[in-house]
Amino acid sequence: MDQSELAELIEALRAHGADHLTCEVKRAKGGMPATLWESISAFANAGGGRVLLGIDEKSGFTVTGVDDPAAMEAQLGAVCSEMEPPVRAEIRTVVLDGKSVVLCAVPPIPRDQRPCHKRSLGPWAGSRIRVADGDRKLTDYEVAVLLANRTEPRNDLTPIPAASLDDLDPALVEAFLRRIRDTKGDIFRRVDDERALTMLNVLATYEGRVVPTLAGLLVFGFYPQTFEPQLDLTVVAYPTTAPGVLGGHGERFTENRSIDGPIPVIVAECIRVLKRNMRRRSIVSGIFRVDEWEYPEEVLREALVNALVHRDYSEFARGMQVQVEMYPDRLLIRNPGGLYGPVDVGSLGTTTVTSSRNRALLKILEDTPFGDGHMVCENRGTGIARMLVALGEAGMEPPRFTDDISSFAVEFPNHALLDEEALAWLTSLPLPPLSRSQMTALVMMRNGAVLTNSSYRTSTGVRDSRIATRELKELVDAGVVEQVGTRGSASYQLTPGRVPRDATTQGQLVAGGLTDNEARVLSALAGGSLSRAQLERVTGMTRAQVHHALRALRQKGRIELLGNQRARNSRWAAIG
């Protein structure tokens, strides 16, 4: 980072008004801050980040400098070496306004080596994670999840001593064995059913008795919840866009169900319940208009199976359920346990690399009939990619994935991305014929997104980074998209001035002299005060979009801030 880049970063911090997810600043006038290791641990346990020493946040991010930059660099290096595993940070000094600022670029630690912690405190007391502009101690469960990622979990192979073969549905088991013997060769034809089921990890021997494994019980059990009551799924449909805000008739929910049974039954019943709370709508797909559910059934099945199959089944997590929350503007599916193995959010849907903490369960389900002629899952690493393709074919916005160590969530916005208005806008651009992925990306950029090669692939279902690079370059060459940065740091956004102000989501004025984004924020606040983070979740808008909308609404006298702007618990409320 040179002087100009540092100056830009400081200006961005001033505009933001505080530290943020990937940057921590310290005045450090009296020496090395004693708690600096917490930020280093937090950045290393996430996507990395920067520490700046010699910047005073309290005085508006004034450059105060450090007295002895060489000594400060050495002390920073020592702190990084005291971490386990050691953090190999890039440390340097940049002179700005005649003062020395020490920069420490902390790289992310590989997922299978986390949690990065202070060696003298150990992983349970010495691990941190970044939340907004602060560092939070990891919970015991989060530490357990990360430590489990270093090993090969076998929780799905756990014998269930209280269960017996009589607790398995013979019809489901028979259909499973029939397919196995038809597709797996002679080996399973030469052994009896009990031996075959033991070889396939449906059964296991426990103290001289043959009993179902957890995986076998979850797939073929009459009622697995007899033995594990919380290994089920809950579905809650809310009447408004925020939980806790009552509907027009004073109702808290329009649906509140707990769905029990084996995994195939849970998936089928959950889809039925969701359809009962969904509407059908007309969607433009290519040159045709088709009637489709608000969320395509194929997408729902894939997301639900993923949540049930990839969730954490360790003792820590067996009291947690898979949760499905349906709002008027989005659908959220959350399961215990974050991503496992080398897979990260940015690579979801762009690679066929498979990584699961429940390999025996996955193996069983790939040969378990779902009831419609398909197997419950493919186990080929293509599920999320197919989900993205199905959403694209339905003209819908791609989902948002969130991995916060203790849980994984997928959120589907409830609106068509490529609707008639968006298609009319695309047609108005001076462009040659576009691919479906280019159309999706342009409309996302129009709605405020800034894409990278990775997020382009995640959002559009394009798997090959070379194809993504070529398609993005075509948009840049056409002049409608601009590239910021080069190579691995390149990002892409709509070229300023290329799109008429009244044609964009941010600029289009609606009733009351507000832009669409401002109206969405004001509508969300109609039900009560909300924090900025809650507004992001409720509206589905990005952090930057919410920030600009709040600033504009405050200038127009439509909202007020409750609390200090920098406080984490500050909230916004509508006026009048």
TrEMBL record:
This is ATP-binding protein. The lineage of its organism: Bacteria, Bacillati, Actinomycetota, Actinomycetes, Micromonosporales. The keyword Cytoplasm does not apply. Residues 24-137 form the Schlafen AlbA-2 domain. InterPro entries: RecG_C_sf, Schlafen_AlbA_2_dom, Schlafen_AlbA_2_dom_sf, WH-like_DNA-bd_sf, WH_DNA-bd_sf. Pfam families: HATPase_c_4, SLFN_AlbA_2. Keywords: ATP-binding, Nucleotide-binding. GO terms for molecular function: ATP binding. It comes from Paractinoplanes globisporus.
